[in-house]
């Protein structure tokens, strides 16, 4: 049995969705233990009792008594041990696209989105008499650094998806774990109003990914 310690509104959704895919494809059993963020939007302290990092996702593979952390690593682990027919894993021909977009997610995209979130939280928590100053600093960083980098990332992604449905695979692409991996960050941008309509192919890709029954199943756990 696979047990996922899931935190709402976090990268943990990647693993939840992948588990739903594996369940649909192979009947892989799993259970979900839900955790809620604190009022400070942090992970609850009880996660530290499960893994020293104290962050979600945390996956426990009871078949071999392993406790795993880090969403990217957990995805690789699940593909290696549970995607027995390689339906969500890249073929040899698709590996370069798969590997690039896997690393793009955590190297080029997510650090900028996290920085944007942190600055927003700093502004919210600032005393009212210095909030205008902090807000101006936030706007400066957003304009000079965050927005240009996010726009470059989205432009590259939009171009890649112009003639395909999914990130890797022959022809129009084949849905795989890398789509799940990247989806979270892009969907969060859309949720916050930060994904303009001009990125047409990115929006189309989101729609293709979210049309899968496994996505709806994963959302039911949120």
UniProtKB/TrEMBL annotation:
GST N-terminal domain residues: 1-86
TM region(s), chain numbering: none
Molecular function terms, GO-annotated: transferase activity
Keyword Transferase: yes
Gene3D superfamilies (alphabetical): 1.20.1050.10, Glutaredoxin (3.40.30.10)
Pfam families given in the database record: GST_N
Protein origin, superkingdom: Bacteria
InterPro entries assigned to the protein according to its UniProt record, in alphabetical order: Glutathione-S-Trfase_C_sf (IPR036282), Glutathione_S-Trfase (IPR040079), Glutathione_S-Trfase_N (IPR004045), Thioredoxin-like_sf (IPR036249)
Keywords noted in UniProt: Transferase
Name of the featured protein: Glutathione S-transferase
Organism: Moraxella lacunata
């Amino acid at each position: 049995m696979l047990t996922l310690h899931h935190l709402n509104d976090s990268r943990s959704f990647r693993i939840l969705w992948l588990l739903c895919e594996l369940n649909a494809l192979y009947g892989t059993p799993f259970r979900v233990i839900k955790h809620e963020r604190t009022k400070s939007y942090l992970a609850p302290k009880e996660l530290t009792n499960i893994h020293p990092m104290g962050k979600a996702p945390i996956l426990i593979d009871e078949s071999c008594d392993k406790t795993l952390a880090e969403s990217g690593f957990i995805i690789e682990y699940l593909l290696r041990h549970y995607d027995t027919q390689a339906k969500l894993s890249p073929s040899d021909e698709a590996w370069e696209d798969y590997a690039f977009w896997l690393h793009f997610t955590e190297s080029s995209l997510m650090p900028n989105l996290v920085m944007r979130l942190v600055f927003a939280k700093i502004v919210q928590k600032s005393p009212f008499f210095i909030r205008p100053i902090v807000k101006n600093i936030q706007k400066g960083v957003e304009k000079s650094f965050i927005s240009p980098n996010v726009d470059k990332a989205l432009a590259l992604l939009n171009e890649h998806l112009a003639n395909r449905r999914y990130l890797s695979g022959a022809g129009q692409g084949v849905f795989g774990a890398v789509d799940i991996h990247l989806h979270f960050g892009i969907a969060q941008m859309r949720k916050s109003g930060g994904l303009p309509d001009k990125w047409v192919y990115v929006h189309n890709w989101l729609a293709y990914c979210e049309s899968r029954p496994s996505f709806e199943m994963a959302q039911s756990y949120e």
